[in-house]
Every structure is written in C-alpha cells, then in structure tokens.
Design goal:
The structure is a single chain. By secondary structure, the chain is mostly helical. It has a domain of 103 residues. It is built from six helices and two strands. The longest helix has 20 residues.
Length: 164
C-alpha cells in the first residue's frame, strides 16, 4: 500500500487543497531547499533516487495534526508510536514555527497559519503543564537552547500518553 501523506490528517488535507497558489509556490521553495539538505546526507549514488523530502512542509503539518489527534480522547489505533517519535514530532513542530516566521511569513495570516494555531490550541487542550519536565529523560529538543526559547509543546505532557 502506498504511503498517503494526509493519512489521519483531514484538516491538513483540506487546508492544503484551499491554499492559494502563492502559498503553494512558497512551500515548494521550502521543500526544494529541504530536499537538497536531505540529499546531502546520503551517499552520492543514492542522491538522485530521492525525489521529494521526507520532511516536507506538508508532512510536517500532517504529522503535527496526527500527534495532536493521537492525544485527544477517542483516538483508537493499533499504530506503534514510540516516545522517540513524539520527540521527533515536537522537533518537527519547532521547524514549522521557524518556517512560518521566515520563509512562509505570508502564510501566517492565511489558512496554514490558522491551521497551525488551531492544532496548537488542541495540543494545549490534550496536555497539562509539566514544570518538572518529567518527559525530558526521553523527549529532548534536537537543538539545545534555553528553556525560555522552547515552544509550549516542550513544556507540557499528554493527558493520555500516545505511546502506551
């Protein structure tokens, strides 16, 4: 079965379909840059086989929606979701914020910005503050920076652990 980008991410799928051409073009530019980064990390004989980035902007949005949905009440899935995937998803959310503040700044006020805000609000609703950083032994940002610079997603823990 082929991988479906928007699997379990209906809001992302709808937002992508409704995004204006200028936003899709800006996203394509981000993805082209990301593709070159990903290609640069593999052996030369494999580079040309990679035709789209694993961490495309679309995939980052869809993955953030999936992790939020996974933590909300009523999620039922047999998918294996290790805690390391959660850390990766939080890092991916960091990169979305960075892109929305730089290369996709024009999309912040549009449908993609609204989607990201809505997903973040749902994340807050499915989590509780974690001032003790109880997950830090397993869930740490890939890039070290002061606590004050971390997004709220690093400072909360799920009400319902999605890796159980």
């Amino acid at each position: 079965m082929a991988y479906e980008m928007f699997r379990s991410a209906p809001e992302t799928k709808a937002a992508w379909a409704a995004s204006p051409a200028a936003v899709r073009d800006a996203v394509a530019g981000c993805d082209a840059e990301r593709l070159e980064v990903e290609r640069s990390r593999v052996a030369p004989e494999l580079r040309e086989r990679i035709t789209s980035p694993v961490y495309s902007v679309q995939e980052r949005f869809a993955s953030w929606e999936r992790v939020v949905r996974r933590m909300e009440p009523g999620w039922a899935s047999d998918d294996f979701y290790p805690i390391s995937a959660y850390a990766n998803d939080l890092d991916s959310r960091d990169s979305l914020g960075q892109l929305m503040n730089t290369q996709l700044a024009e999309a912040r006020e549009g449908i993609l910005g609204r989607l990201l805000s809505q997903l973040d609000e749902r994340f807050v609703g499915a989590t509780v503050p974690d001032p003790e950083h109880s997950l830090r032994a397993w869930v740490r940002p890939a890039r070290v920076r002061p606590e004050t610079e971390l997004g709220v997603w690093w400072k909360r823990r799920p009400l319902r652990d999605p890796w159980d």
